[in-house]
Each structure stands twice: as structure tokens, then as C-alpha cells.
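[Q] Does anyone have a clean C-alpha cell version of this?
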Amino acid sequence: MVTKISIPLPCLFLLAISAVAQAGEDTVPLETMVITANRTETKEKEVGSSLTVITAEEIQKRQVLTVAEALRLVPGIDVINSGGLGHQTNVYTRGAGSGQTLVLVDMVEMNDPSSPNGAFDFANLMVDNIERIEVLRGGESSLYGSDAIGGVINIITKKGKGGPKFSLSGQGGTYNTFKTIGTASGQVKDVNYALSISETQSHGFSAAETLWNNPERDLYRNTTVDGRLGWDVNKDLDVGASVRYNNGVTGLDGYDSINPEHPSAPVDILGYNQTTSEIYTRGFSHLKLFDSFWEQTFAVAYSNTNRQTSGSSYDYNNYLYIGTKVKGDWQNILHLTNKNDLMIGVEDEEDLFESQSAGIGENYAYNTQGYYVTDRFTLFDRSFTTASVRYTDNSISGSLPTWSITEALLIDEIGMKLKANYGTGFKVPTLAELYMPISWGGNPNLKSETSNNWDIGFEQVFFNKGLQFGATYFNNVFNNLIQGNPTTQNWTMENIGTATAQGAETFIQVQPLDLLTLRANYTYDYTRNLDDNTQLVYRPQNKVNFETNYQLTSKINLNLVVIAVGEKPGVSHINVPGYAIANLAGSYTVTKNVKLFSRIDNLFNKNYQEAYGYGTSGLAGFGGVTLSY
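[A] Here you go.
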């Protein structure tokens, strides 16, 4: 059965708008500063690209555990989880593949060189110690290089400030799920620090659909450590370092047998597990010269993803994959005038892939160098233009130029922003696509995937942001897509695919009272594989999100989220029906040092799937307490 969803969004806000019109105008909202759009701090209103910021406060009000859950409410983003906590979780941006979105944490690239398509798996990424998440949609290869065809998800962790602060939090609930987390942060003279350590455990549910005769629970355990340290040496020099470590152990299911009633669906496999260890670290120095005319940042980043499976009766299912990135980046910003900034940068990245399966061990590597120039200039304090060009040279697939231009035009007299973005993109073939054993389809002759992306839209603000709404049309063309060729014996990887994704993102936010906020967004994403004129797998054509947050009293906060997703194609040309679920979260501040919180997932106990054949949570409740000092 296909669930049909129809939500008349304008009706939800009609009565609230009249209240907004009467709201006081004595408070001027602070300017929001962002980093991801231009690789340097920029006022959000001056950004021409499509950007969404998820704050730490929003994460806390929703009471979500993982970054993937926080991303579900972003327009243009589709999150596909295969079986609950700890299981593979892919993110698709505006129809682009999961490996075509670049994921960063404190500017460290998290995309996994050992993954078949270079995607980052969000399965083990908790929201611990996160200050905000910036989601940049649209081709950004000229700014960030390979993997940024669909967009960039930049996770920025908390920076210590003020006196010493400590917190301890614990929670538990359905599926024998428990989490504890401790944090410490602060600033001592010119040195700031922030540290968090957490442990999460869950007995979970079967990754393979429970209702399809798969009773085994797939257990999960996660340990996350996040640290950040900074030193302001003097007014012109600061240095710092960050590190994030994730370790997850997950019970897996697979395809050891075939269920004739549900072809190509996963089934329980007893004792089959995966252990994933991930580390992301970066050190940097930031120097200002000639009275801040010239800013330069030199950084070295390292990431390592180690995935090991065991317990399968088939040797090829018991494997060890290790993906490593080492990257140096020298970024220079020249403040030519107060209206014109010129950025010049050089990057050098080494990717390594080690694998061992069925007694065969292999090691591969390649080098990618990038050179980029970005010019940002302002006219009349209302036109903000950014033009970028990048030249990339990969030691295997060769060189490729990309470019982009964005424009934001402010019409302050009526509270409107017009915005537009055009860019070309590329994605270098992964080491797995190039060199996996020929029996798995590796092809060393692959070319880079390329894209052309553009969007145009507007944002409108009334009543000191008491009412905000906007819409953006986007159009993406992906060329030279790397896919397995079904006409070859081993589905050899080839540049045989061309696809398009076009549609619209709309949003509206109303704040009729200081303590009440209503938000909704709708995404229409029409995707097509032009080779066979089919909709791209796991990209729904329609998606609606609704959120209301009510600060009931100075101590009580309530948050309701409704997510409605339309039908989408799954694997083996089997469609996954649409669904709608609601999640409710609340908190009660007992004292300034004690806070109670709780949430209910899948409030109406809907049975649904995100990926064909994989289970999802039923009605589930959780509660906990945070002690802070």
C-alpha cells in the first residue's frame, strides 16, 4: 500500500500570521554568521547559496541522539537508515548520490576512502558536543573539491569559553537503550578547551524487517570521544587542534537465505557483527599580517575509518576495510578593500585503501592536489557576489577545472533576499571503484563523475523575522556516473550513467509569540536516470516536514516533529511505500543545575520502512536527566 500525504501548509499558519503582525518590534535579531558557504565567516543573509543551520539549541529541543536524525528536517535532504541505531545510514542531497555529498567535522573530511562510492556512513555519528551543523546544498566542488557535487554538511563542535563548566547526563528507554555522557569545557586565560565522552548501548530490534519473520535483535554499542583545544598566542596568531573518535559495534543481517515472499530482502544472520572505528583530527594555525590585510590558515588533517566484519559463514562477508586520508591545506585571504576579499588556496591530499577478504589483502593509494581562487565582492551593501574557480589534479584520473558563481541581492525595503547559484562539479573515482578485485567489478580506467548545478530562489522576512518564507528551484545534471554494467559478467564499474534531479524547496516559519515557533518545509525532487528513464533509488519525489516548539513556561519546553515522506524506488525495482511519523520531545528545568528530559519516537506506532526490507522503530519512549555545573 502506498501512503498518500496531503498537507495544506498555508492553512497551518493563516491564523498565526495575524498574531505576528501585532508582535512587538523592539527586539532586533542578531546577525547569524556562517562558515561553510565561503570557507570563511560570512553573514548568513549575504549568502547566495542554499544553506540551513541546525543549532545546538534545536538539537537539544528535539532530543535526537544522532546527526542523521537532526538532518531529517532539512529541505532537500533524504536520510535512509537500514535497520536502526548503528546500521548503515546514507544521506542524499537534492537527488545526488550518497557519495556525492562532502561531510566535514571541524573541516576534517569524513568521507570514507574504503567505501565503495566514497560516502560517509552516518551510523555512528552522535550529536555529542556539536555547536551547529551547516548544510550547504548545490554543487560546491570549486570551493571544496571532489565529493561536493550534491553539497556539503559541515559539523562544527563546541569551543570552550568562560569559566569551567561540567555536565553529566544519563538516559534510558525502549529496546534497553541507555546513554551516558560527560562534558567539560572552559577557558583559562588565552587557552580554551572542550571535551565530551559518551557511551551508548541498545538491544535494538532486527535490522531485517521483524514482521517478515526476523525475530533476532541486533545489538549496538557506541563510544564517542570529542575534544577541541585552542590557544590565542597573541592578537594576530591563534592555533588549535580537534579530535573526534567514534567506535561502534553493530549486529548485522544479510542475505544468507532467500525469502520467497519478499525477494531481495535481508534476513536474520545470527552472530554476524561489524566493528567500526573512526578517528578525525586536525591541527591548524591562523595568522593575520599587515594589520589583518592578509589572513592565512595552515592546517593538516588526518582521518581513518576501520571496518571489520565477522561471524558470517561465507568468507567473503568477513572482511577488513581501512580507509585513510591525510590532507594539508594552506588558505590565504587578502582583504583588498572593505568590499572585496580574495581567497587563494592550495591543498594536497593522500587517500589510502587497505582491504582483506577471503585471505586476500590489497593496498591502494592516490594523490589529489587542488588549487582554488575565490573572489567575494559587495556592491552598495545589497549585492553580494562570490566567484570561485578550482583546478584539481588526481594522480590516477587526471586533471579537471571547476567553477561557480553565487549572488545574493538584498531588498531591505521589503525584507526580501533574491539568490542564485551556478556551479560545475566533479567526483574522482574511489579507490574501491578503481581497484577492487575484478571479480567485484573494479576498473582502473574510470573517469571522474561531473555535474552542472544551478538554483534560483527568494527569502522573505516580515515583522522582525516573526514571519519568514521562501522557495528555491534547483536543477542538477550528473554525467559520467559510475555504475556497475549489468551486461558484463562481474558488473564491471563503468562511466555509463547520466541522471538529472530538478525540483523545488519551500519553507515557512511563523513565530506568533516569543515562546511559540511553527516551521514547515516541502521538497519536490524529480529525479531521472536518463539511461532507462527511471526514478533514482531511495530519492522520494515528495517530502514534508513540520515542527512546532512551545516554551510552555520558563521551565517547560515541548517539541513536536512530523515527517512525511512519499513513495520511492528501492533495490531490485521494488518500491518502498510512503509514510508519516511524529516524534514528541520535552524538557523540564528543575533548577539551573538539573534538567529532566524525555522523548517519544513514532508517536502513533506506524509500521514503515525507509529502505526495502529493513526494520524501523515502533513506538518508543526515552527519558533522562542532565546535571550541570
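[Q] Thanks! Anything notable?
[A] Residues 1-28 have pLDDT under 50 and may be disordered.
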